[in-house]
From TrEMBL:
Keyword Acetylation: no
Transmembrane segments: none
A Pfam short name: DLH
Domain of life according to the entry: Bacteria
InterPro entries from the UniProt entry: AB_hydrolase_fold, Dienelactn_hydro, Dienelactone_hydrolase-like
Protein name (Swiss-Prot/TrEMBL): Dienelactone hydrolase
Alphabetical keyword list: Hydrolase
SUPFAM superfamilies associated with the record: alpha/beta-Hydrolases
GO molecular function, a single term: hydrolase activity
Domain Dienelactone hydrolase: 19-249
Gene3D superfamilies listed in its UniProt record: alpha/beta hydrolase
């Protein structure tokens, strides 16, 4: 683990300016780029710490505020410890913003984030990695399908929904993906039932996508997020091991 340097940056998009957090090894060298796509609660200190840990392993990490159209982070007021059972109104605040992130908006946003990484002197030449959490896993799959030439590795953790009955369901887009995928589902997760997982895997197999999916038994939806009631330290550490191994395989020249 190396020391990291972090700062806030603004990323120009077709719809405005997305505030973002960038973190990278403090060694003066360029490193492979990684795009972290937030969970539903948004850009906050715990996600910055997650990005820092990835960066300390030798990556330049961009963590944008996906809700930038509604203001700079924090877009909504969050407690230091998020327990949705005690604060159900939080979901009422974030769900409209989640639903707003259509494939059309994702395409323009992801293009801007990938362009920012490509132009950064802290990012080495070559393809980048994506990792997403909860809703971010869904967006990561779709972004990898939209920009296959730019993405070499995709990870998703307690993600969903990845299988829906709509024409833009993520599992219907995977035929364009050239990256290697790793997905780790929570054992207790209504967003991705065993049937959904099987259907997602079937779509990946049919498309010939290199992938591995696992179920972290006993873990709940949100298990990686250290500031939530769903946090599972053992599952979170497993997530870091698998994520960094995926990136090391695909992003190191």
């Amino acid at each position: 683990m190396t020391a990291t340097y972090a700062m806030s940056v603004d990323v120009q998009t077709p719809d405005g300016v997305a505030d973002a957090y960038v973190t990278y090894p403090d060694d003066g060298a360029a490193h492979p780029g990684v795009l972290v796509i937030q969970d539903g609660f948004g850009l906050r200190p715990s996600l910055r710490s997650l990005a820092d840990r990835i960066a300390a392993h030798g990556y330049t990490v961009l963590l944008p505020n996906a809700y930038y159209r509604h203001g700079r982070a924090p877009v909504i007021e969050l407690p230091d410890f998020i327990d949705p059972a005690q604060r159900p109104e939080i979901f009422q605040q974030v769900f409209p913003m989640i639903r707003e992130l259509t494939p059309q908006l994702l395409r323009s946003d992801a293009a801007a984030y990938l362009a920012w990484l490509a132009a950064s002197p802290q990012v080495a030449e070559g393809q980048v990695g994506l990792t997403g959490y909860c809703m971010g896993a869904r967006l990561a799959v779709m972004a990898a399908a939209m920009f296959p030439d730019q993405v070499a590795a995709v990870a998703g953790f307690h993600g969903g929904p990845l299988v829906t009955d709509t024409p833009d369901s993520p599992h219907l887009t995977v035929g364009n993906i050239t990256a290697e995928l790793y997905f780790a589902h929570a054992g207790d997760d209504d967003h991705m039932t065993p049937e959904h997982i099987a259907q997602f895997d079937k779509a990946l197999d049919a498309a010939g996508v290199r992938h591995r999916t696992e179920v972290y038994e006993g873990a709940h939806h949100g298990y990686t997020q250290a500031d939530t009631s769903a946090y599972d330290p053992e599952a979170a550490e497993r997530h870091y091991r698998e994520l960094l191994a995926l990136f090391d395989r695909n992003l190191r020249q």
